[in-house]
Structures are given as C-alpha cells and as structure tokens.
Amino acid sequence: MAQNETQHDSRTLDINKKVVENIDNGILVLDDSLKIHHFNRWLELHTNMKEEDVSGKQLDALFTNINTKTLIRKIKTALRLHSPTFYTASTSRYLIPIKVNKLTGTSFEYMQQDVSIIPFNLEQNLVALIITDQTNMANTNALLHSHILKIKELNTELIKERDTIDKKVLFLKLNKERKISDLSQALLEQIYYDKEELLGLDYLHRERYNLDIGLQKKILDALLEKRVFEYEEKTQTAHGEEIIFKSSLVPEYNAYGEYLGTIIFRENITDAKHLAQTQEKVLATSRSAAMGEMLSMIAHQWRQPLSLINTIMATLKIKTQLNKLDTETMYSSFEKIESTTKYLSETIDDFRDYFKPNKLASEFLLSELFDNSIFFLKDEMVQQGIAYEVNIPQDLHIYTYKNELIQSIINIIKNSVDAFYEVESTKKYIKVKVTELDSHLAISIEDNAGGIEQETLKKVFEPYFSTKSNNGTGLGLYMCYAIITEHLKGHIVMQSKNGTTTTLLELPYKLIQGEHS
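Structure (tokenized):
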C-alpha cells in the first residue's frame, strides 16, 4: 500500500514537472532542510545547471549567498500555516545569483527576484519556490528613486533660491483685486514696515499721495490690460524718509496660463537721483563758469572794435572843433562805426546762441562747427603766436546737439590756449584732426603746451580739479565730459606724452533723438 502511495506521489510530481516546464518563472521544489527535489527548465537556462546535477543537493551549498536560517524558517512557516509566504534577500535582493544581460540597460549586476514560498506536499514537507524576474521593476523603482532624490535636491535649491530672492530682490505682489498679497523681505527692510501692516491694502489707494493722477491712470490701465509698465515713484518709509523707486509692473501667470495678479519689481534709485541732481547743480555751476570765461573772451574780442570806435569819435571831435569835418569824412566815419557796432552785436548774438540749450538735434557740417568754435579764440591765438591747423573732411556731416558740442570744443581749445601761458615755446600749435570710422567719428585735438603729468591726467575730468595756476574753476573739462558722455552719447579721453596733450573724442554720426539727458 505504501509503495502504491509513493508511486502515486512520484507520478503526481512528474505531472507537475511537465506542467511547469514551460512557465516563464523559476520553480524550485525543496524540503524543509533545503534539499532540492525539482529544478525546472527556466532555472537550468538561467544558471547553466542541469536538474540531474543538482537534485538531492542542498540549495544553500550550491548558492552560499542564501540566508539558510531565514529561508528554513520561512519554509516551515508556510508548511505549518498551510499558506504561501515570501522570501526577501534584504541586501542582494535575489535568492539565486543570475547575471543580468548588460544590453538591457539595467543598473543591476544580478537579476532582482521576487520569491514566493507555496506549500507543495505537506506529508513530505515539500514547498515550491516560485522565482519571478523583477529586474525591470526594480530598475524602474531605482530610477524613480533617483528622480525623487533629484526632485528633493532641486526643491531644496528652489527653496534656497526663493529665500535668496526674498532677501535680495525688491518686489511686492498684487492679487487680481490689486491688493497687496506679498512683499519681499528685502523691500520691507528698505521701507521699514512689517509685512502684516501692508498685506491686504489696495496698492493704488495706498500710493495715491505719492503718484500724480496721470501716473495713477497709466498704472491702472496697465493692471487692467495685464501688460508690463515701468515708472518712477517717490514714497515714504515708515520713518517718514523719502525713497525713490524705479518700478516695473509685470503680470503673473501660473503654469496653465491663468492670470494670478501682478508683481511689481522695484529698484532703489534714491542715491542715483540725488547724485544726478548734484551733478546737474555742478554742471549748472560749470556752465556759469564757462559763461564767465566766454564773457572774458568777448571782452577781448570787443577791445579792438571799441578802440576803433573811440578813435573815430575822437577824430570827428577834433575835425569838428577845427572846422575841417567834411561830409565825406563824416559819412565814412559813420559807416565804420555802424559796421563795428554790427560786429559787436553779432558777437553777442553768437554768445547767446552758443549757450542756448538745444531741444532738438540737428544736422550740420563739422568743419563749420569748428570754424564757429574758434571765433572767440582766434585773436588770442594770434597774439600768442599759436598756429591752428585743421584737418576735417569738408563734406562731413554730423547729427547731434550743435550748441553743446560747440561749448565742449571751445572749452577744450581754450584749455589748450591757456596752457601756453604756463610754458615758453617758440613753435606753438593746436592741431585738430577728424577721422571717419565705421560707426562713429573720432576727433583729435592736440597741443604742444608742455603736456600733463600722468597722475594729473587721472583727475582732469573731475569737478573742481584745475591745472591752471591762477583762476581755474576746475569745471570746464568736467562740463565737457558730462556733455560728451551723457548728452551726446560719446566718449572722451585725454592723453599726454613728450610735451604734447591730446584730447580724443568719439561721437556717433547720428544721435538717436530722445537720448538727450
């Protein structure tokens, strides 16, 4: 009878073997001592071991990575409870080491396995271990885990970045109702308010005393139209101090394109504004000083004509007293006086025109501008014996603010003329040369009045710095620098070597209208 039962069990095992041969999983039949009773085709293919070679052998003897105690305990639990259980290799994540084909792109060296332990024959204490290849799933999980770590890392960086923005960037946010919904810590520190004091306030209502009606309307239009708008505003800190912001109003949208409100980015330009005001005052002072020098030049221009008038009048007076004044002499004298007074009047007109600020740029010949520039200086240059050489293309036109350029040229040449009073020279000269370049023109004004020391060159364009020993205001070259760089959008430098000084100017052929500061 026992023999029949054994034969029945054997036949049953044979039938089961046939059933599982083509299953795409590893199936291993063990007893509770880990002796191998079946080793299916899938395992043979993946381990390069034959069933006849491993049957009857201890599984943990063939694969030493197995945790014997854990696996036996799991098998006995499944047999005792008549219920499936699982074996998990806590470190290696596999029961039987099977090399993975690297062409699959996995990051694992060995197949990652899911091992189910199912009671098979309770009388013989046999269990079936079903080994499922979970490498792709494990690889996906590992990739997902790495992405999660990366996202956490990026999120950490984003939080740091947000904190940096909050501490460094001046901004406030408005919701759809134009009420303040957030403010950066950087802005709060500049206006000395607590965030709670400002949250929920209507922005335009709060700033109504700091913005004129016209600007309020423009800001409201930009908010309603959801467009970018830039403006300047003066406001008050919590301490009552005036602060000036350059503000940029930018609509805010979420990832779905839905309008959230508006961000107003701010830049504190208080110091820059005050500096500009100071510079404007200095520039105004420099213009006054330049006008003083010009008056001096006018007086020099007038000296000879006034002397001529005085001589004519004296002659007429004497001839009248001697009864020798004839009609021809009288009319001739009147014509000379008339032409001389006309010259004096033209001198005043020229002076007035040169110091009248240009509101619009204009096109003119550069050669004519230089002719006009030395009108007040030519007599002084002749008296000093200064040779004046000009090399300017006769047909070269420039489009810029004419009078401001004339003021600058007069200042530079006058500076050269004055420098000759400080030195003794037999061959004095001032040379002007203009070179046409691709995008701009270059003007060179050179004199041989002894040169300037290198340390002094670094300061010549600073306000109130003068190289003149007597009555220099130190504002002439500063005014030139301000006009050339800020108003005419050019460049100016001064160089000196071997007793010569050269002032170099670069100017655009055409100044874009509206750039005038």
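The chain has four domains: 17-141, 169-268, 271-356, 360-517. The radius of gyration is 49 Å.
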